[in-house]
Specification:
alpha/beta; D-Maltodextrin-Binding Protein, domain 2; about 40% helix; disordered N terminus
Length: about 270
């Protein structure tokens, strides 16, 4: 085959391969198949982080850049959504989940590296109301959520089959003997911040969120804290994503779980371990 003919064939094949590669990535993101993860580390690492970590991580990221001169970016969403994005091949250096379930999921799918797992912080589960209607209550097995909500009141939290805050909320309500009584009045949102917004806007009579999210809201008040034994401990495991286990990313993970970061977590009300 002449060099002229070979060059002509390559000119046809290369664009075709590019189109096919783009199509494969699109199908993977839509859930129709796997896509290979790039093995090389990112120049500016991206941390996939639970929505409830937004404010703390933004401050920690600024502190990290100030100390090291290195940039870091964050992508915040429900842990369930982030885990699925990793599964579809979305690039990230570190995954910070709001519960153990979704970190176990990514480990099981060989998406994150179990040996790098750290769990530096925790949180608590609280009941909130719009500030102008807040009335303190005590949550125990004698407390009736149906009476508390009134005839038509809804209670907002995360999606109870996938979003960590929603899973914690359903577990707590079930433990207290309340789930079957009010499950039709539970509004599931795509993240804890979305649930918080529903209560802030008065679109739900109450909400179940993390104490740290309630603390930064302007128009809601905490009316009760759920008993610690009504749900599993709220924990935040962090892990390095497979293919991103570099010295730089280990240093970033160490900073996210180190003393300077812990001081910021404490400022936002997280339980530091």
């Amino acid at each position: 085959m002449s060099s002229v003919v070979a060059s002509s064939l390559l000119a046809v094949v290369r664009p075709r391969r590019a189109v096919l590669g783009a199509a494969a990535l699109a199908l993977a993101v839509l859930g129709f198949g796997p896509v290979a993860r790039p093995a090389q580390a990112q120049d500016v690492p991206t941390v996939f982080a639970a929505a409830s970590l937004t404010n703390a991580f933004q401050d920690i990221g600024a502190a990290y850049t100030a100390k090291t001169g290195k940039k870091v970016t964050f992508s915040f969403a429900a842990s369930s959504a982030l885990a699925k994005q990793l599964e579809a091949g979305a690039p990230a250096a570190i995954f910070a989940s709001a519960d153990n379930k979704w970190m176990d999921y990514t480990e099981g799918k060989d998406l994150t590296i179990k040996s790098t797992r750290v769990t530096p912080i925790g949180n608590s589960l609280v009941l909130i109301m719009p500030a102008d209607k807040a009335k303190p209550v005590t949550i125990d097995k004698s407390f009736s959520f149906a009476d508390f909500l009134g005839a038509d009141g809804k209670i907002a939290t995360g999606l109870t089959d996938s979003v960590p805050i929603g899973i914690y909320a359903k577990t707590a309500l079930t433990s207290l003997g309340q789930w079957d009584k009010i499950k039709d009045r539970v509004v599931g949102a795509e993240s804890v911040r979305a649930a918080l917004a529903l209560v802030e806007r008065g679109e739900a009579a109450a909400g179940i969120v993390y104490s740290t999210d309630a603390a930064i809201a302007k128009n809601v008040k905490v009316v009760a804290t759920f008993p610690a034994d009504s749900h599993p401990p709220v924990e935040y495991p962090f892990e390095i994503v497979k293919g991103q286990d570099t010295e730089a990313n280990r240093a970033l993970l160490a900073f996210l779980s180190g003393p300077e970061a812990k001081a910021i977590y404490e400022k936002y009300g997280f339980v530091v371990k």
